[in-house]
Amino acid sequence: MQSVVILIGCFLDTLQISLFRYAGRFAAIFVFVKVLLFVVLLIALHFFEAEIPLSHAAFAMPVLIAMLLGQGLFKREGARLIGPELHKLTALCFLIVLSIDVPLAYLAFPEFEGLAGVMGVMIGFGLFFSFLGYWAIFIGFKIGFRLAEKEAARKLVS
């Protein structure tokens, strides 16, 4: 585990912007929103006996969080991340999403014995949605940077 931290640290020590700070903010917001959605779902089930469809929220949440972080990063640092730095931050945020969502998915399917016949299909779907998730977070950051740049340009003009 220590070698992984050292390896990640080697890639990130030349930056002026702390990617770990923004990845930590991403993790905090992601966990907060996950817990909030869980509480809302519990309240709806318990008090109103209604199920809220939250299937698309799991995919949209990392994109929106990345967009908000992209805006905040641009406003705070006065610059946008490009190239490898943006990919590193996206990868860190994606690892955070995986580290939270994979154990929750494992808990949702406690008996894998009945799923052994379709395990290859499940792994394929998992890889496909992982690919989409990474690029969704990347695009979220790009949109956030672009929105913050437009807002800064509007302030300069007026």
Structural write-up:
The protein is mainly alpha-helical and 158 residues long. The termini are far apart. The chain has one domain (15-110, 122-157). Helix content is 80%, strand content 0%. The radius of gyration is 18 Å and the shape is globular. It has five helices and no strands.
List segments where confidence is low: pLDDT < 50 over at least 5 consecutive residues: 1-10
The portion of residues assigned to helices is: over 70%
What percent of residues are in strands? under 5%
Distance between the termini: 51 Å
- Main beta sheet: strand number and arrangement? none
The chain-level structural class is mainly alpha
Summarize this structure as a short list of keywords or feature phrases:
80% helix, 0% strand, single chain, mainly alpha, 158 residues
Could you write a compact summary of the structure shown?
With 158 residues, this protein is mainly alpha-helical. Helix content is 80%, strand content 0%.
Element layout with pairings:
Elements lengths: L1 H11 L6 H29 L9 H21 L5 H26 L10 H39 L1
